[in-house]
Hints:
Elements: H1 9-25, H2 29-36, H3 40-47, H4 55-65, H5 69-74, H6 80-88, H7 100-129, H8 143-156, H9 163-179
Helix pairs in contact: 2-3, 6-7, 7-8, 8-9
Amino acid sequence: MPRKNPLPPDEAAICARVKQFREALGFSRVSFAKEIGEDSTAVVNIEHGRVPLRFATAKKIITRFRPSVRWLALGKTGDLITEAVALEKLPSNVSGGSLFSFVFTKYLASQVAIVSAEIEIRISEIVKLSTVLTGCEMTGVPWADLVKMQTAIAGLLGAALEEESHLKAHQWIAARIAQSGKGEVRKPGKATKAKNRHLT
Length: 200
């Protein structure tokens, strides 16, 4: 039965994305509800726009399946690593009954920005210290120290991340450094010229 008063467009769009996400995973409503620990009626009501998505349900979906929080809220691509950290940093008193859209706007969006800024600072520190001289060599900092710095950044990404996610965090950091266009972390190999120095 449809609502007497339809949901606001933004809330209805979030509900539609829940359905889109479930269908993309290939789950029926019943199996999807079981996966996130909800009653199937709750999933039906959300997908049909009878009720808005509450934070408690959104968190279950995000924790179980790791969709982008920004995509779920706004329909725009987000960064899964920073979003996972931001979710862990939410105040403990955030009510599960709050609208997901409210929690995203008031807390998550700003937390993602803060975490991203912290990571960018640390990446810039690595970039400054790791200017590439040749395709396989760099100077300025020993490789072992670069690995330690990467580990420190991965630690910033949250101890709560699963082991697999922690490994992906390292790969993500390396990719971000390479994308910066200023330098990249590479393990040093043989020198191509006698005058080039090896790192220790």
